[in-house]
Amino acid sequence: MTPPNPQAAAGAHRWRAALFMLAAVGMFALMDAGMKLLTAHYPPMQISAIRGGASLPFVLVWVLSTVGARSLFRVRWRLHLLRAVLGIMMMAPFVYALRTLPLSTAYTIFFIAPLLITALSVPILGERVGPRRWTAIVVGFLGVLVVLRPTGEGVASLAGLAVLLAAFGYAVSAITVRVLARTDSSQAIVVWLLASMALGAGLLALPQWVPIRAEDLWLIAGIGVAGALGQYTITEAFRRGEASLIAPLEYSALLWGVLLDFSLWNVLPDGMTWVGAAIIVLSGLYLLRRERIHLEAEHP
Question: 31 to each of 127, 178, 197, how far by Cα in Å?
Answer without folding.
Answer: 34, 25, 16
